[in-house]
Amino acid sequence: MTCLLARGHLLIEDLPGMGKTTLAHLLATLMGLDYQRIQFTSDLLPADVIGVSVYDRGAERFHFHPGPVFAQLLLADEINRATPKTQSALLEAMEERQITAEGKTRPLPYPFFVIATQNPAHQVGTFPLPESQLDRFLMRISLGYPDQATERRLLQGQGGRNKLENLRAVATTDDLRLWQQASRQVFVSDALLDYVQALVGSSREIRETTGLSPRAGMGLLHTARTWAWLRGREKVLPEDVQAVWPAVAGHRLGPGTEGDTHAAQILQSVIVP
User: Fold this and answer.
1) Considering the chain, what is the average pLDDT of its residues?
2) Residue 68 in 3-state DSSP?
């Protein structure tokens, strides 16, 4: 919810079977969003994502058939199993919320929210996402294994994808638009801006990585604002920045656990004003 309200995109990195797809479908159902899923494979083509023009003999002209990218919530499942050419087909859509096909620019529906899942890089048949693609994702999270009590409920049939059939939408796109606007109004003090700049600046001093970009810094602030708003506060606290920092910074500072380690070290070294 934090990532959605901050108008970013989400990357979920975990092993297969952890419930990544179910989580995305659940969010789309509860928010009343049009949902599409793309299963990324090594033979997937860019046209399979954005759409293709088909010639109509009767009308003697081409008609554009939109691809699954024209959805309010798009699940890019196992995105790192596709080739880099296909992965890049999402770049314009994620950044500009539009696609260009056959020389014409077509806007994507509101809100265009991408949840991409990827398997760990050590698994066979994966193509690591380039830095330019990773920077398009505002946050990266990992679900991990459930605790024993939760897993027991799953084994007893008290959870899982079959429960989605009984759920109904609890919000509309108008609600979502109002929530996004409200979260942007949360107050940020100069001292907190100093703290955000200190974190971003410290990331650029690590030799093994290029550090966080200005876009990442703005994303960190938007995310912290949303985190605070969801907890009913009218101003952002350092604790809000610290809560979202690992998810915003980790994937930008290195692959896998390396980036998470860098993010943790920066958080420990930078003093709160």
Assistant:
1) 89
2) coil
